[in-house]
Design goal:
The complex is a heterodimer of chains A (415) and B (164). Chain A is mainly α and 415 residues long. Chain A is built from 18 helices and eight strands. In chain A, the strands form three sheets. Chain A has a three-stranded antiparallel beta sheet with strand order 1-2-3. In chain A, strands 6-7-8 form a three-stranded antiparallel beta sheet. Chain B contains three helices and seven strands. The chains are: A mainly alpha (415), B alpha/beta (164). Chains A and B meet through α2, α9, β6, β7 and β8 of A and β3, β4 and α3 of B.
């Protein structure tokens, strides 16, 4: 402590000393953040207990976007569930289509044609790319960096254009069907896709140039949102959050579905598991997705034309020529339209590696055309649960990048 | 009871045979239905056993079997996953309607906290010993539990909120 000025009396000197030594008395205050807050892209409410700017405790309140996904699914036919799956994670709708269809196909014991499987992987990786671009772009935006967001969104536009070419929709893109896909790749898709890959790589390079080494960005990201590996595992966190902490778990490698075991790609992992590592993992995953898309295009070119749907009247309509000329097919089409597929009684769990982690569907059927149970295992919800551990003890402002990289998507979290 | 060549199912039958009521492996998913009162012991064993190593509770949900006319009415379903061994196991426990309770697993896997709150919210199954038994997705004033099969989809709720 500096020596007190000479002109003070003995008593005044004591006071100065006390003031320096004494802790500032602060009262904890409760701050209500959300449910509609510009820096949380999603409707979620945080009740934050603050000591100055330090987060003491956090209560996460979810459910603002609950639309009764499961209830709606359980009161329609199996096919009527499919559009609702698009509205789960609207950044990567095709991944949810895929998870649901894989579950129903598991119950039906269906094996889809090879060409269909490659197209599904292609569409799934485009969706993942769009999701990661949104996450990284929006994270920069919420840290007050507008430029990288625009690069990210421009690249996402390219993936959306491709998804639009595949299925006609840009956001709620519904491409995967039970037992197949909507239709084969449109004419000129290959050239458009290869052209877009070049452009996306260039945009990712710009993105990297602007933000990865940026001092402000690193200061906000390094060392924030930390959580131990043990906590991540006991909270069943999956996806980039887990990989950033150094655990190389990815369902595409661990339980390869579709044709992922024939594809050459790497699983990037982080070292310490802070927000900066999460960002780096996401960026590298985008490069890996582009690699996968290229391999899919090559393989589809090599495979040549072929069926993209199973020939099973339970789930796919018979060919129109047969419907018009044969009684049996006419009946099959009539049943398929009025009733929908009859799924054998039983239960099955199918999971895909979505952009946020393990997206699982647990389906129970009683043999009728209406599901008994359609459970979606939402990675957004499960990854959000340990958020209080990640932000406790940190600064209030650190909640923003941490929440961005948890990437809670309201539609999927609240269902 | 058969273990269908699944290592965790085999270990479970060796060590907790008295708790297992039925097993199956339809579509390749190893499944065991266990007694409701044994759920914490069985899960703790499955997590800590060197051959099972289920560090993750991948999912927890409930199924209402009302339309199937089965007794007991509810089924709580746990999906376990092991990062170390890369295998899965599904555990189910039946819960009757008149005693709608099962022990909480928050002590075994903290992720059960939110998932159990969701099941309470949507199915009205209570988790005995849960540290924070609030609704998760819906609001406290909500009447009933909407994923029960006897909750009509069209049913409306009274308006809730601050009174002027």
């Amino acid at each position: 402590m500096a020596e007190a000025p000479r002109w003070l009396t003995e008593r005044e000197k004591e006071t100065v000393e006390d003031d320096f030594e004494r802790d500032l008395h602060t009262e904890h205050q409760i701050l209500n953040m959300g449910p509609s807050h510009p820096a949380t892209h999603g409707t979620v409410k945080f009740l934050i207990e603050l000591d100055g700017e330090t987060v003491i405790d956090l209560d996460v309140q979810v459910g603002y976007l609950h639309r009764g996904f499961e209830k709606e699914c359980e009161s329609g036919s199996w096919y009527q569930c499919l559009p609702y799956t698009d509205r789960l994670n609207y950044n990567s709708a095709i991944l949810a289509n895929l998870g649901f269809c894989l579950g129903v196909e598991k119950l039906l014991d269906l094996e889809t044609p090879e060409r269909c499987q490659w197209q599904r992987v292609l569409a799934a990786e485009l969706a993942r790319l769009g999701d990661h671009l949104t996450r990284c772009g929006a994270a920069c935006l919420e840290l007050a960096a507008m430029t990288p967001f625009l690069y990210g969104i421009e690249a996402r536009e390219l993936t959306w254009d491709l998804q639009e070419a595949l299925c006609g929709a840009r956001v709620t893109s519904n491409y995967v069907r039970i037992g197949g896909v909507k239709h084969d790749l449109p004419a000129g898709f290959d050239a458009q896709c290869r052209d877009s890959i070049v452009k996306i790589r260039a945009l990712l390079a710009d993105f990297h140039e602007v933000i990865t080494g940026n001092r402000i960005f690193i200061d906000r990201m390094r060392g924030t949102g930390m959580i131990s590996k043990e906590d991540l595992v006991s909270y069943s966190v999956t996806g980039p959050l887990l990989r950033a902490a150094g655990i190389p778990h990815d369902l595409r490698k661990a339980e390869p579905y579709l044709v992922y075991d024939e594809i050459d790609f790497d699983i990037p992992i982080g070292e310490v598991g802070d927000n900066y590592d999460r960002y780096l993992v996401c960026v590298e995953e985008m490069h890996q997705s582009l690699r996968i898309v290229e391999q899919c295009l090559d393989r589809l070119e090599k495979l040549g034309p072929g069926p993209v749907n199973v020939l099973d009247p339970r789930v796919r309509w018979p060919a129109k020529g047969r419907v018009f000329n044969h009684m049996e097919e006419l009946i099959q089409q009539f049943k398929a339209v009025t009733e929908g597929p009859l799924v054998p009684a039983g239960e099955a769990y199918a999971a895909v590696e979505s952009a946020n982690g393990e997206l699982g569907f647990y389906l129970v059927s009683d043999g009728s055309a209406q599901p008994v149970k359609v459970r979606c295992r939402p990675p957004s919800l499960i990854n959000l649960a340990p958020l209080p551990i990640m932000v406790k003890g940190g600064m209030l402002a650190d909640i923003i990048p941490t929440f961005d990289f948890v990437n809670m998507i309201g539609g999927e979290c609240d269902r | 009871m058969e273990d269908f060549g699944s290592v965790p199912l085999q270990r479970l039958l060796e060590r907790h045979a008295e708790a297992v009521e039925a097993t199956h492996a339809d579509h390749g998913d190893a499944t065991a239905q266990i007694r409701r009162d044994a759920v914490v012991d069985v899960m703790r064993f499955l997590r800590d056993d060197a051959e099972c190593r289920f560090e993750m509770l991948a999912d927890l949900c409930a199924v209402d079997l009302l339309t199937l006319g089965e007794e007991p009415r509810f089924e709580v379903v746990y999906h376990l996953y092991s990062l170390d061994k890369n295998h899965r196991l599904r555990i189910k426990a039946r819960v009757p309607e008149d005693d709608c309770e099962i022990d909480t697993l928050v002590e075994v896997w903290p992720t059960a906290n939110w998932l159990e709150r969701e099941v309470w919210d949507l199915y009205g199954i209570r988790f005995r010993g849960h540290p924070d038994p609030r609704r998760l997705l819906l609001y406290e004033e909500f009447e009933g539990h909407p994923l029960r099969k006897d909750y009509a989809k069209e049913r409306r709720q009274p308006l809730a909120g601050p009174e002027n």
